[in-house]
Amino acid sequence: MSLQQRSIFFLQLLALLISITSSIPNPNPEFPCQPPHLNSYPFCNTSLSITDRAQSLISLLTLEEKIHQLSNNASAIPRLGIPPYQWWSESLHGIASNGPGVSFDGRVKAATSFPQVLLTAASFNRTLWFKIGLAIGIEAKAMYNVGQAGLTFWAPNINIFRDPRWGRGQETPGEDPMVVSAYAVEFVKGFQGEPWRGSGNLRDRFGRKRALRGYNDEDDDRLMNSACCKHLIAYDLEKWMNFSRYSFDALVTRQDMEDSYEPPFRSCIQQGKASCLMCSYNAINGVPACARGDLLQKARNEWGFKGYITSDCDAVATIKEYQNYTRTDDDAVALVLKAGMDINCGTYLVRHTQTTIEEGKLQEKDIDRALLNLFSVQLRLGLFDGDPRKGQFGELGPQNVCTTEHKMLALEAARQGIVLLKNDNKFLPLNRNVVSSLAVIGPMANNISNMGGGYTGVPCEPMSFFKGLQGYVKEASFASGCSDVPCESDAGFNEAIRTAKKADFVIVVAGLDLSQETEDHDRVSLLLPGKQMDLLSSVAAASGKPIILVLTGGGPLDVSFAKGNPNIASILWVGYPGEAGGKALADVIFGDFNPGGRLPMTWYPESFTKVAMNDMHMRADPFRGFPGRTYRFYTGNRVYGFGQGLSYTNFTYKLLSAPRKLSLSRSFTGTSTNVGDMDGSHVVMLFSRAPKKIEGTPENQLIAFDRVHTSSYGSTETSILVNPCNHLSIVDQQGERILPLGEHVLTLGDLVHSVLIET
Ligand SMILES: *[C@@H]1O[C@H](CO)[C@@H](O)[C@H](O)[C@H]1NC(C)=O
Ligand SMILES: *[C@@H]1O[C@H](CO)[C@@H](O)[C@H](O)[C@H]1NC(C)=O
Ligand SMILES: *[C@@H]1O[C@H](CO)[C@@H](O)[C@H](O)[C@H]1NC(C)=O
Ligand SMILES: *[C@@H]1O[C@H](CO)[C@@H](O)[C@H](O)[C@H]1NC(C)=O
Ligand SMILES: *[C@@H]1O[C@H](CO)[C@@H](O)[C@H](O)[C@H]1NC(C)=O
Ligand SMILES: *[C@@H]1O[C@H](CO)[C@@H](O)[C@H](O)[C@H]1NC(C)=O
Ligand SMILES: *[C@@H]1O[C@H](CO)[C@@H](O)[C@H](O)[C@H]1NC(C)=O
């Protein structure tokens, strides 16, 4: 046989072996609807509609089998060839290890760790948000295909960052409902695979365009992955004083509900088309979130939600056990299933649903209703289409995780998000040809374990700040100053001072990590933890050199002392910058990237901690000394404001066309001019102040934003379409949206322009 004949022979032999093995019934299938079950059941028949397939599957199940589907750890149904399914996987800013659905123990050992969401939000760049959602979505599906993740992920977290002490504010896109909504829409569209509706292309790892087996035109409902808008609703307190998220009753006015708490969820569903909602632990006005049938139904009936509703983990058990809202377990189970919740994270429903039915508190049809939502999502994901590697996106695998493209995007996100808060006499950027030695000080400066904040997985190539800076300055030295972030001892101060004195330039990395703010843990102070402030002041005073202060963490910090201290030349906020944070910071400090991030939340002074965190009011109330919350309503002093952020250059604005009167949508056009000698991106933010005709009118409201790139001494034109009803309306105390007549004041940087709304 020639070489060619021999290889043909072997190929034929191989094909024969494959056909023999695939005809042997598989008693423990990895995936449903594999041979011999493929197409033998109507629920496996891809020619039928999703609803028909789901209903057919429900009709085949016993009550016990049905009940075992009501947990995140859904049981196998061996007689139908259905393996178990784990509904709980996490993907907040990269595939995370928090949920049991994800494993890094397999062919995929790591996944791209993007910055924590709050820093990504600071870029105010919708394209970036979308691309990150898409990149995480591709890695998710790739990990699913090799058995290392589910397809149902519980991200994004879109509760607004209401109070600066909130331990999970870092996970959110900030305090502004409109910005949070915009982030939610972009992330969800990318993550769920919106671009492949109809048809689509994906580049493989060599950058070649390759058609994916995407959706068919009629498969409008198909999903690459499922994203979950969480936590519905008014959830933004972990554990503060004697309040706990498990029993907290959030008292929310109709006005605040309508214009602050609800908008991100509405957008996440209506425009983002998310396929999951998570109801939260807390109660809202006396009723536990997962029992708020009115809200769950509103999502389906008014916002057009198509998907499944999961409880937060054990959030049904807490209704009875922590909130004492029902007397028995069965009452809690009946309550949530009748309200419209579909699945429980935990085992509570599996344990109590049978008796609830026997007692007549619940009917089997209530479970069938939930199962229809659950199976429909699984079917839309292709979970019942046989081997996923042969189906839509089946080509994705380990080669699509931690790609150069995704790692570059993580770097790009950190660079775009970093916020320059202070820069006396243009101290930054440093010139790498001038800096011969550098001291890098602080407990987080040389530690990669906290770079991503909450919900981090295993990063591909994490780089510490110190390592990133060493890439620019060979003679760099590190001293931790404090042994850890809580910084209870000054034992390391002398070493830090010695290190600082020996170097030309000094960078101090201070701020927060997860020991200060995390799930189940809110802060009580806005000051730097422990003796960090002393460390900074001693290094600044003793070294006699201007300090570059780098602040980490999500929650706002009262750094008034640093803001006013002439020894501290520059301040940068880097959030939790993800795996590429070290390089991103160095690129900004040495001017290879001109910072353009803006704070997505207000930085309050320490005195704000007098405000009760459990007070959910957004609007100020001078009669009881309540200062209000977020830039829209807060009336007190601030350390740094929402939207603040400097650049290495300045930008000036000019309005080219701006109507004076508005009845229909009209375009406002302006130019931004970069009046400095460095190219840069910056965020155009258009605010509006409505005439104060009704109680509770916001002080100011962001109505549009756009990140634009402008080269040195160049100009960029931006047009913003303003729709009076969408952008200039406000919500009254009854929760109704109205458009106040009179002068609305629009501001764009220093420019002020008023617009008249007439009848
Ligand atoms: C799948 O459903 C289609 C449409 O009802 C039907 O024509 C076909 O016979 C079904 N396939 C199998 C294998 O039952
Ligand atoms: C998931 O459920 C199965 C039974 O269906 C059980 O054997 C297994 O221990 C459960 N896993 C977890 C993590 O609870
Ligand atoms: C928490 O403590 C405050 C006083 O410290 C008290 O007024 C309030 O009732 C307590 N709340 C709960 C839920 O126990
Ligand atoms: C509910 O009951 C438990 C046990 O009796 C008690 O410890 C807890 O404080 C109660 N919670 C509320 C919110 O009343
Ligand atoms: C890095 O930080 C983590 C979390 O705070 C801590 O457990 C670990 O000891 C630190 N590592 C070093 C080398 O300081
Ligand atoms: C921007 O303009 C302000 C006010 O004129 C000036 O103080 C500052 O130095 C300028 N910054 C840069 C980076 O040019
Ligand atoms: C927005 O992000 C995208 C993706 O990273 C990037 O290509 C683009 O340059 C960014 N836009 C601006 C104005 O910075």
Question: Overview of this structure, please?
Answer:
Residues 682-752 form the Fibronectin type III-like domain. This is Fibronectin type III-like domain-containing protein. The protein is α/β, with parallel strands linked by helices and 759 residues long. Among the domains are: 413-624, Rossmann fold, CATH 3.40.50.1700; 650-757, Immunoglobulin-like, CATH 2.60.40.10. The chain is 28% helix and 17% strand. The chain has 21 helices and 27 strands. The strands form nine sheets. It has a six-stranded mixed sheet with strand order 13-18-17-16-14-15, sandwiched between helices. A four-stranded antiparallel sheet has the order 22-21-26-27. Strands 5-9-12 form a three-stranded parallel sheet. Strand 10 and strand 11 form a beta hairpin. Helix 2 (50-60) crosses helix 13, helix 6 (177-192) packs parallel to helix 8 (263-270) and helix 14 packs across helix 19. The longest helix is centred in the first third of the chain and has 20 residues, at 3-22. The radius of gyration is 27 Å and the shape is globular. The protein starts with a helix and ends with a strand. The model is unreliable at 1-11, 13-27 and 198-218 (pLDDT under 50). Bound molecules: 2-acetamido-2-deoxy-beta-D-glucopyranose (7 copies).
